[in-house]
Design goal:
The complex is a heterodimer of chains A (301) and B (438). Chain A contains 14 helices and no strands. Chain A is an all-alpha fold. Chain B is globular. The chains are: A mainly alpha (301), B alpha/beta (438).
């Protein structure tokens, strides 16, 4: 923050040669990172632009017109998607929202509890537990999908909403982040002061620690939301009823319809485009909490 | 006891005639007794519109028999086989599954499919022998009822062939000559491409040449991917790619669609379902294509391979195997059912009587210029060579994509790629515990 302020103020003042020489130097250095970032932005935004533009093309235009020339079929595509098997797309969208929304919320709650506990309490086996969790971070969730399926099959829970929700609730990465964040954002003396004043542990957690942890928990929520929203293999293994499919799976069935039926490219592309929108909206809304994150850090130091 | 016997048989030699009698003796009959009361079945399928076809059953014959079927739509492909096997491991596979022919040995060797020979034997005559044989795996058991088939054919741009003075090739030698002629007359165009992404296409071409990729002798498997017939096919296509007579880009990509739509590629070796693909891939060229039989390896032969096609199978996890088999038979032999399947799902039926009736009395809209399209197709379907699949087709297919993908890209030796495919397949079978003889 302060660096920026100096940088802005210096040219305006322009009195002492010492300060006048520094800003141009900074600017020259900034050129390389700016270019790099721009390149990165192009690299990541180009596919998004492709999806946006391709979703406006009719099936006829999709492969025959110039790639980045917008088409004329957007309204028709949406209508076709809406009509496909009685609007099953919206069911998938709702399912995705349920899996990702509820799943991320529960997962964030579990992460907050355990992260806070690991950060503030000292108990035997704490480090072991944490190390096991760290090992869990290294384990890609993909390889757990089949064992999880076999476990849930024993409990007769496969092909249900729970079968997709349950395995995603415990996120080792979320717990790890929550612990790191809690130990940095919740000072031990604040917790101690609460105890002195006779607050119960539960009250200390909900009234004092949790508000301080909010920015970190928002990050955990967002990570988990995106992870569940984009998850493919777990629901693929667990679900067989396409009324319970999330978007990822639903769009996949549109692509793989067997050798004798062409893939429904326009529907898949339009569907993928619409599926990105909620994520973008979520990021825009949650940005607020991230600036709060910077602020709270500044206050503490 | 019957169970262990079957298990042992199945793991040692699936696709074999040996011990087939014992297999049939302890088949499905014992665990599904004559049922009474309403039965409800689940069915995993990827065919579009299958729910509408199943509705016909649920409202008609199914109502009478008190058998209700629920469709659970799936994505097709090798991943579905994995999903079925995972579900089977937990004893939770659905009653009925749709399975491609080449997946049947894999499913059977994992004991996932039930022998329904007792319930389906009387419909055997409705299918071509080569098709039925794929569902029996050469034993006396029957593991599925054929649904659709994909006899291979040659598609070409009629107008452009005329423009460049090309003749429709009837042998592969002429095919190569046609490719070269085109290159001379229009260097920026290609007759077609060799796609290393489509294992099924290569398998079909090898099948036409007389290859037997999997066979059994005694209680051992023999893998013949690297046999003379397949080597001939690999050398032929490898040679064309190497000299640049045809393209080496994969199919089913946007740029391939574009090449077909703009006439950069003017022919396609495909199967009976091609009209559907062309409709979306090359919408601008509607009515300009024509279909002909696949070129032959020698002028006196008349044989084709198959690319695609699937069957309806009953799983061992089903509690109502007899009812499930009843539905599978209805779905794939009943006149109304097949008509609906053709209309809703766009399939080409395996049942020979359906190939010329109902939906198939007129040509597909894309081929309205060829009124006898389906008459011709039915004739070609009869010439389909027998197929021989093994228990790890998926491994062979993956190896094909890797090895031939690299070979096509570098325009290098296809026979080396074929050897790699053979070695990978044998190594995997040994790892899985199958006896393999060289």
């Amino acid at each position: 923050m302060s660096a920026l302020a100096v940088h802005d103020a210096a040219p305006a003042a322009g009195t002492t040669p010492g300060t006048a020489r520094r800003p141009p130097l900074r600017r020259r250095i900034a050129l390389v990172p700016t270019l790099t970032l721009l390149l990165g932005a192009v690299y990541t935004l180009l596919p998004v632009a492709w999806v946006v533009i391709a979703s406006t093309k009719s099936g006829h235009e999709l492969f025959s017109t110039f790639t980045f020339l917008p088409g004329t079929g957007f309204a028709d595509n949406i209508r076709d998607l809406d009509a496909y098997r009685g609007g099953v797309y919206w069911t998938w969208m709702g399912n995705s929202a349920l899996y990702a929304g509820l799943g991320a919320l529960l997962s964030t709650a579990v992460s907050a509890f355990s992260g806070y506990a690991l950060a503030t309490y000292r108990f035997r086996g704490r480090e072991t537990m944490f190390n096991v969790l760290l090992a869990g971070v290294l384990m890609p969730p993909v390889i757990l999908a089949i064992p999880q399926y076999l476990l849930l099959a024993k409990a007769d829970l496969t092909d249900s909403y729970l079968s997709v929700l349950l395995p995603q609730i415990l996120s080792p990465y979320g717990v790890y982040l929550a612990r790191i964040y809690a130990s940095a954002a919740v000072p031990a003396d604040v917790v101690e002061a609460g105890r002195m004043d006779g607050a119960s542990e539960w009250r200390i957690f909900t009234r004092i620690a949790l508000p301080m942890m909010i920015p970190g928990m928002v990050t955990v929520f967002l990570f988990q939301f995106v992870a569940v929203w984009n998850n493919f293999l777990l629901p693929y293994i667990m679900l067989s009823d396409d009324e319970k499919f999330p978007l990822t799976l639903g769009l996949y069935t549109l692509l793989e319809q067997g050798a004798n039926t062409p893939a429904l490219y326009t529907l898949v592309i339009t569907g993928a485009f619409l599926a990105v929108l909620p994520l973008i909206a979520l990021f825009l809304v949650i940005q607020r909490f991230w600036s709060l994150d910077l602020l709270s850090g500044a206050v503490k130091s | 006891m019957p169970h262990t016997k079957r298990r042992r048989l199945v793991t040692t030699a699936v696709a074999v005639s040996l011990g087939a009698t014992a297999l049939a003796a302890c088949g499905s009959g014992d665990d599904s007794k004559a049922e009474s009361g309403p039965v409800s079945l689940t069915y995993w399928t990827w065919t579009p519109g299958m729910d509408k076809v199943v509705d016909l059953w649920n409202k008609g014959p199914g109502k009478k028999e008190q058998i209700t079927v629920t469709v659970k739509k799936q994505a097709s492909g090798d991943t579905l086989v994995t999903k079925i096997l995972t579900a089977h491991k937990a004893k939770k596979a659905p009653d009925l599954v749709q399975a491609e022919y080449q997946a049947l040995p894999t499913l059977v060797s994992n004991d996932a499919l039930a022998d329904v020979s007792e319930d389906v034997d009387d419909v055997k005559d409705k299918f071509a022998e080569g098709v039925w044989q794929q569902t029996t795996l050469g034993t006396e058991a029957v593991y599925a009822v054929p649904q659709d088939i994909g006899p291979m054919m040659f598609y070409y741009r009629e107008d452009l062939f005329k423009q460049y003075g090309l003749k429709v090739p009837t042998t592969w030698e002429q095919f190569a000559e046609t490719a070269r002629q085109l290159k001379k007359k229009a260097p920026d165009k290609d007759l077609t491409t060799f796609s290393a992404n489509d294992s099924g296409l290569f398998a079909g071409l090898a099948q036409q040449a007389g290859a037997k990729w999997w066979s059994t002798s005694g209680d051992k498997w023999k893998v013949g991917i690297d046999d003379a017939a397949t080597r001939k096919v690999a050398e032929f296509w490898g040679g064309l790619v190497e000299e640049g007579a045809i393209d080496n880009q994969p199919m089913y990509t946007p740029s391939w669609n574009k090449a077909l739509n703009t006439g950069k590629q003017i022919a396609w070796v495909s199967a009976v379902w091609a009209p559907g693909t062309l409709t979306t891939a090359a919408p601008d060229t509607k009515g300009k294509w024509a279909m002909a039989p696949l070129p032959q390896w020698s002028a006196d032969k008349d044989v084709t391979g198959s690319w695609g096609g699937s069957s309806t199978a009953v799983t061992t996890d089903s509690a109502h195997k007899e009812a499930a088999a009843k539905f599978a038979v209805w779905l794939n032999t009943d006149h109304d059912a097949l008509n609906a399947l053709a209309k809703e799902g766009g399939i080409y039926p395996a049942s020979t009587s359906a190939q010329l009736s109902g939906a198939f009395s007129n040509p597909p809209a894309y081929f309205s210029n060829q009124p006898d399209f389906y008459t011709k197709a039915a004739g070609i379907a009869k010439t389909t060579a027998p197929a021989s699949w093994g228990p790890n087709v998926n491994v062979a297919y993956t190896s094909f994509k890797d090895a031939f993908g690299a070979a096509a890209k570098n325009k290098s030796d296809f026979t080396a790629a074929l050897r790699k495919m053979q070695d990978d397949t044998v190594a995997d079978m040994k790892k899985q515990g199958f006896g393999v003889s060289r």
